[in-house]
Amino acid sequence: MSTPPVAAPVRRSDKDYEYWRWRILLGTMIGYIFFYFVRKSITMAMPGLEEIGITKTTLGLFLTIHGVLYGVARFVNGVWSDRVNPRYFMSIGLFLAAMTNVFCGFSSDIATAIGVSSESKANVIAWIIGSFWIINGWVQGMGFPPCAKSLMHWFAPKEHGVKFATWNISHSFGAGLVFLLNSFVVAFGWKYCFLVPACLSILGAIGLYWALRDSPEKEGFEPVEVYYARKHGAAEEVAEVQAAVADDEKTSWWADLCKNVFSNWAVWVLCFANFFVYIVRFSILDWAPTFLSQSKGLDLKSAGWATACYEIFGACGIILSGLLMDRVFHGRGAKACFVYMLGCLIASFTFWKLDSDSLVLNILIMSMIGFFIYGPQCLIGCVAATIATKKSGAASSGLTGLFGYLATIVTGFGVGLIVDSATAPYKAARDDMVATAVAGAAEIPGFEAEKIQEIGVSGLVKALEGAYDAQRSYDNFSGSRETYAGQKVAEKLEKSQGKLTAAINDIFQGAELDDAQRTKIVETATKEAIQGRANISKAGWPLIFGMLVFSSFAAMLLFAMIFNAASPELRREEQARKEREAAQKS
Question: Which of 388, 381, 372, 385 is nearest to 404 (CA)?
Fold first, then answer.
C-alpha cells in the first residue's frame, strides 16, 4: 500500500499578512506609549519632590542611575530579545515598570507607615523612590528591543525608514501625553504623577499580550524580504532575495553579532552620535518643567504645555525623517540625520542666546528643537538595526541605545550638580539678605544678622517662599472655594502659614514677638527671599543651554562620517542591479 503524498504547506493570504503587519506596528506603538507613561512620570513630580526637601542633585542622581541601567538593559535585553517571543517579553516588562511607579507613588505613605520622623521623612522618601526608580530603569529596557525585533521581522529593509519613523511617534506621543496628563494630575499632589500613569499602563500590558506575536515565519507566513520582493520586485529579484535569506539563516547568531555589530565601525560611530543626540533630548525632556519655571519664569502648567509641544513637534519631525531616509536618501539614514542636526544646532543656539520669558516664543523654539532632535533619535536605532541583519537588529539598536542612555550621566546627575554648584553663591547671598532683613524687622538684642545666620535661615527661606506661592495661588484662584480644588488651595495656604510661624519660632528660640514684629518680619524677609529666588533661578541654566549647542554640533560631525551607511540587503541589491546593468550593456 503506497503512502499518500504529503500536502504542501498552504501559504497564508497577503491580506492576512498585511493585517498582521499593521497589528504588530500599532500594537508595539501603543505599548511603547505606555512605557513612556511609567518612565517620564517622575519629571512633572520633581518640582513637588523638591518642595519636600529632595535636592536637584539627588533627583539628577535618580535620573542618571535610571538612564545608565536602562541603556545597559537595552543592550542586554536586545541580545536576549533577538531570541525570545516579543509578546511575553514586552508585556511583562510594562507590567513590572508600572508596579515600580505604584511603589514610588506610595513612598510618602510607606514612610509614614513605618513611623519615620518628619525631619528624616524626605530622605526616606528619596531612598524609596530612588530604589524603585533603579528597578524601573532595568525593566524599561524590556520595551524597545522587542519592538525593534518585531519591526525588523515584519517589515522589509526598504520600508524601515517610514515604518521605524511611524513607530517612533510613540516616543513623542508617550512623553507628550504623560506631560499633558500630569500637568493636570500634579494639582492633586506629586504622588498621583506616578499612580495614575501606572494604572493606565497595567491595562496597556494586558493589551500588549493580546496584540503581539512572534516572527512571520512562526505565524505561517513567508520571510518579509521575500514577501516584499514578490509584491514590488521582478521575478529575478525574488529568487535573489530567497537565496540571500537562505544564506543569512546559515550564519550562527554569534558570528552574525560579531560581524555586523561588534566589528561594524559605522555602528560605533552611531553609538557616539547617539550619546550627543540624547544629551540634547534628555536635557530638555527631563528638566524642561524645572528650567522653564526657574529660568524663563513660566508657571508649572505652562511649562508642561511647552514640553508637550516639544514632543508633538518631535512627532512631526520623526515622520519627515523616515520619508527623507527612504524616498530622498534611498535608505541612507545618516544623511537625513546630518540635515536634522544642522537644524537642531541653529534652534539650540537661538534658545541659548535669546533671553525671553514669552510663553509663545519659548514654546516655538522648544518645538523646533523637538522637531529636529527626534528625527535623528528615531533614525539612529533604525540605521543601526538595518546595517546589521535582522538576526542582530535588536542587539545593534540596543548597543546604540546603551550609549544614548549613558548620556544621562550628563543630563541627570551632571545637570543637577552644575546648576546646584552655579547657584550656591546666589543662595548664600540670599540667606545673608534674609538674615539682615529679619534682624532689622525684629530689633531684638542678641538676634543680630550674624546670630540668625548661625542659627540657620534655610528653613525660614523655604517657609517664606511656600507661603508666598500659596498666597498667590489662593488670590489667583478663580473657581468656587467650595470645590475640591478650592479647598485644596485653601488647605495649602493654611498649612504654609503654619510652617512659616514654626520657622520664625525656630529662629527666635522662644523670644517674645508681637503681631507687628511678625508682620514686619514676614513682609521684609519675603521680599528678600523672592528676589533671591529670582537671582538663583537665572544662574546655572545658561551653561546647560550652551551644552545643547555643543552636543548638536558634535552629533552633526559624526553623522557626516557615515553618510553612505546602508543595510547589507540594500548593498546586495545595488550590487546585483549594477551587475545586471553591466550584463545588459555587454
Answer: 381
Residue 436 CB neighbours (<10 A) = 18
The 10s digit of each residue's pLDDT in 523-554 is 998 998 888 877 777 777 778 888 899 999 99
Q: Which residue has the cell 554648584?
A: 421
List, in order, residues 6 or more apart from 348 with CB less than 8 Å away. 280, 369, 545, 548, 549, 552
Residue type, 160: H
Domains observed in the chain: 25-222+266-406+540-585 (1.20.1250.20), 421-538 (no CATH)
Question: Quick one: cell of 306?
Answer: 511647552
Name the nearest CA neighbour of 533 among 294, 296, 300, 289. 294
559 near 271, Cβ under 8 Å?
A: no
Contact 502, 463 (CB under 8 A): yes
CA-to-CA distance for 399 and 41, rounded, in angstroms?
25
> Which cell is 452 given?
540668625
Residue 232's CB is within 10 A of a number of other CB atoms, namely 12
Tell me: the pLDDT tens digits for 478-527?
A: 777 778 777 888 888 889 889 888 888 888 877 778 888 888 989 998 99
pTM of the model: 0.69
- Grid cell, residue 84, equals 525570545
DSSP per-residue string spanning 333-361: HHHHHHHHHHHHHHHHHHHHH-----HHH
Residue 337 to residue 379: CA distance in whole angstroms: 7
CA dihedral (133, 135, 141, 146) in degrees, to 10, reads -120
